């Protein structure tokens, strides 16, 4: 809502709320410059956005971006703690529900889709975020093949984050530094 001042927004007749760009957080940042539009408010095409501007905003600066939910990612290190869902508390004693608590990268496609392609895979010191993952100074050459073996054609998969699974790591990683697995896959019907 950059460029606007103060008002209301509707998507296909559904009110998504007020915006007030001069309302600042304690860090002096605008708090209402971005809005999430629920998918249930959207039609396949011909969507109507109505902006009621109470002051003197500039609608030409409003930007609408879409998110591709068919690209999913996982970033997990060798020493990533196990999920709390893998434990139970009985009479004040916490016990694991499974025998294997080693870290795994987990991926699950939405809407009964399956993993059609591995777009990025690196076991080493990758960095970035989903959609912008980058290899770091070191990576295991077998990273993509390992992920493909575990995930291609599946709707959900788990990849063990273990050095033995990926083999040698090439590059300038310190020998005892923990490694991270970063994966980005494409889901499709």
UniProtKB/TrEMBL annotation:
The keyword Nucleus does not apply. The keyword Hydrolase applies. Keywords: Glycosidase, Hydrolase. Residues 99-188 form the SUEL-type lectin domain. One of its GO terms (biological process) is carbohydrate metabolic process. PANTHER family: BETA-GALACTOSIDASE RELATED (PTHR23421). GO terms for molecular function: beta-galactosidase activity; carbohydrate binding. This is SUEL-type lectin domain-containing protein. InterPro entries: BetaGal_gal-bd, Galactose-bd-like_sf, Glycoside_Hdrlase_35, Lectin_gal-bd_dom, Lectin_gal-bd_sf. It comes from Hibiscus syriacus. It holds the Pfam family BetaGal_gal-bd. It comes from the Eukaryota.
């Amino acid at each position: 809502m950059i460029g606007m001042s103060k008002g209301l927004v509707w998507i296909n007749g559904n009110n998504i709320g007020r915006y007030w760009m001069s309302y600042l957080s304690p860090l002096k940042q605008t708090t209402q410059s971005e809005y999430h539009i629920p998918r249930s408010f959207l039609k396949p095409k011909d969507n109507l956005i109505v902006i009621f501007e109470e002051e003197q905003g500039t609608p030409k600066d409003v930007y609408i971006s879409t998110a591709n939910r068919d690209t999913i990612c996982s970033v997990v290190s060798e020493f990533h703690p196990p999920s709390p869902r893998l434990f139970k508390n009985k009479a004040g004693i916490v016990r694991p529900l499974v025998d294997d608590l080693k870290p795994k990268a987990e991926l699950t496609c939405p809407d009964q889709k399956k993993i059609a392609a591995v777009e990025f895979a690196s076991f080493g010191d990758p960095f970035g975020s989903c959609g912008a993952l980058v290899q770091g100074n070191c990576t295991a050459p077998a990273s993509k093949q390992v992920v493909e073996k575990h995930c291609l054609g599946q709707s959900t998969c788990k990849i063990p984050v273990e050095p033995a699974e990926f083999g040698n790591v090439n590059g300038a990683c310190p020998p005892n530094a923990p490694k991270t697995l970063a994966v980005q896959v494409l889901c499709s019907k």
